[in-house]
Amino acid sequence: MADTLRIVHCFRSPVGGIFRHVRDLTEAQVAAGHMVGIVCDSTTGGEFEERLFGQMKDMLALGIHRTPMQRHVGPGDLASARRTYSIIKELRPDVLHGHGAKGGAYARLFGSLLRVSRSRVARLYSPHGGSLHYDETTATGKLFFALERFMARFTDCLLFVSDYERRTYRRKVGEPPIPNMLVYNGLRAAEFEPVIISADAADLLYIGMMRDLKGPDIFIDALAAAGPQLGRALSAVMIGDGDDLPHYHAQVKRLGLEGHVRFLPPMSAREAFALAALVVVPSRAEAMPYIVLETLAAARPIIATAVGGIPEILGSDSPALIRPDPIELADKMSEALADVAAYSKSMPDAADLRARFGADVMAAEIEKAYFAALGR
């Protein structure tokens, strides 16, 4: 078919929101008749991610290709870049879509190299926060934003997952000199079915990467402070993995919460939602987190920090929004747990969420960007 595209998604770490975004997008693109492949890091992810790859492999005509990619810029990047370019060249993509800082750099550089020897390759970049989280006043931030400005000349289209991300790009990098679009993350129709909590559910749930950027430490401190406010010890489930996990185990022990906090390995969000009455997203920085969308679609109440694109989901005046501060979070935990049913009524309307954040809407808009970048 003339409109069938060979699409390759390139990103570093197959965990968290970026991986979720790519999975949903590839599924929709395959359903639309395109040939799709993935190139990502082989050193991150665990059993949970391996199961997800196993579910995907048969539907991706261009396959799943994993090769070591280090997180930070360093000497190993040269060998990593050579390997990744060789894989991408063999796949002969029409569209190279890079996700996150590393994936975005590879997709744009390698797409440009491919143009030297063959027909047009569309080079698209979705930051997903990525390097935009850096402080523009630091030397590191200035370096990364200078690189972003330089890389714009090798980019056919920027795809932002939130208006916050687009505004941050403009403030830290500058006005994009190339086409750019706002396309919200989207959920599948089945995810808009309510999840009922189990009979022995805990009070609170944290689910996400175990790193300070996502605020597990804020969650634990708030848990310790909220118990005395309610006159009882609160129970919590913390689900996820990451290099900082031992630090949070130690924090729980130090605060005397060992008998009240369960740590569990990564699992699907809908499986996790059944384990607690209230979901907490205590992040210090975000772009457009899937976990907030998934929680609301499952008709579960949430407390979330007013960072990144989260207010675009909940509404800027939502009572669910707090600052990434343990005392403020503890107060909100106490308020919500005092009457969860009443608190739940303050969540956004399900029909509105579905209209704004459907996977079908997301995929259709991104496909338009691909064809525009190819001049079709």
Description of the structure:
With 376 residues, this protein is α/β, with parallel strands linked by helices. 44% of the residues lie in helices and 16% in strands. It has 15 helices and 13 strands. It has a 7-stranded parallel beta sheet with strand order 3-2-1-4-5-6-7, sandwiched between helices. Strand 11, helix 10 and strand 12 (302-305) form a beta-alpha-beta unit. Helix 7 (216-230) packs across helix 12. 45% of the residues are buried. The mean pLDDT is 94.
Short account of what is shown:
The chain has helices at 16-31, 47-56, 76-91, 100-117, 139-151, 163-172, 216-230, 245-254, 269-273, 290-297, 310-314, 326-338, 340-344, 350-356, 359-373, and strands at residues 6-11, 35-40, 63-66, 95-99, 122-126, 157-160, 180-182, 202-207, 236-239, 261-264, 276-281, 302-305, 321-322.
